[in-house]
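User: What would this chain look like folded?
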Amino acid sequence: MRLGGAAKVEDSEIGRELFERWALAYLGRFASSAENLRRVLLRRVRRRSPPGSEAAPEAAALIDALVERYRRSGLLDDAAYAAQRVQSLNRRGESIAKIRARLVAKGIQNSVATDALSAFREEAGDPDLAAACAFARRRRLGPYRRGEVDQTRDLAAFARAGFSRQIARRVLACSDIEAVEALAQPDLG
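Assistant: Here's the prediction, encoded as structure tokens.
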């Protein structure tokens, strides 16, 4: 029987082999933290089990063992995942505050997130300024706006994205796109 595109499975079918297939398929498509993989697998069990099934509580121990095995083998590495996510989200224009929140939402421990953000700050200089420039380009704010510039509206967009007023003003003070691009370049001195 197929409901919502996913076949229901019998309690007897839910086991190590099925979790292994699900986990490897997921990790083949997405980078993941250990806690996020655990959540994904538990959600799949609940979604694919018949109503009233006792599969989810029994599956939790098997999933924990699988996740721990993947951690020991290096297939799951929360520190590497956090470092990669920090870099990619910063390039997209996410503020450091938003990046930290996203990492915590994916199950990254606070200390691991702090370490990844600290390492990135040492490497990148002022990552919030570069991210704010990318955010302005992506959202067409400030010099990227085609119509009339509305400073108040643009400041509000930066604030909602987690950028400080000072950084938003620096980006919005640029007179043209080239100035924003120059501001985004790290200091090489």
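The chain has ten helices and two strands. If you want, I can go into more detail on any region.
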